[in-house]
Design brief:
globular; 60s Ribosomal Protein L30, Chain: A; mainly beta; 7-stranded antiparallel sheet; 9 strands
């Protein structure tokens, strides 16, 4: 059965990321700087190159791939929780090329911002800590009922 916890909206931030910055690293740094341990993030814009991952459920390993080309961020969605005592942004992104061909996956370090506007919403509530999940091999939220 699904487990969920009640959270309360606390603060919301809107802004733009730095040209040439690493997309995931800059979002994570914003969370550290603003002391956001629980939240959600969304963004749109463009990247000059991207590094994504796909989780292979059989091998329980991420398969990384890179696209060294300009792409539009059509949707970035993610959450913020705690891993190893620090804020962690977990995000997935869908991107499109000049022909509208879409690419998507788990956002990985190495994705470089061309232009990016973001919304970062912080919540108050219980701690959502990431820990090893035996069934999947993933660092998922460890939550009790």
């Amino acid at each position: 059965m699904a487990v969920m916890k009640k959270v309360t909206p606390a603060k919301m931030f809107m802004g733009k990321l730095t040209y040439g910055a690493d997309l995931l690293e800059e979002l994570t740094e914003l969370c550290r700087r603003e002391n956001i341990h629980l939240g959600r993030v969304e963004a749109l814009g463009a990247v000059s190159r991207v590094r994504l991952a796909f989780y292979d459920q059989q091998t329980r390993e991420y398969q990384f791939f890179e696209l060294d080309q300009p792409l539009e961020i059509t949707k970035l969605v993610g959450n913020v929780s705690i891993k190893d005592g620090k804020p962690m942004v977990h995000a997935h992104v869908t991107l499109a090329d000049e022909a509208g061909k879409a690419f998507g996956g788990h956002l990985a370090p190495g994705t470089i911002v061309f232009a990016c506007e973001f919304i970062l919403q912080a919540f108050e509530g219980p701690v959502f800590e990431r820990g090893f999940d035996e069934q999947t091999g993933l660092p998922l939220w460890t939550m009790s009922e």
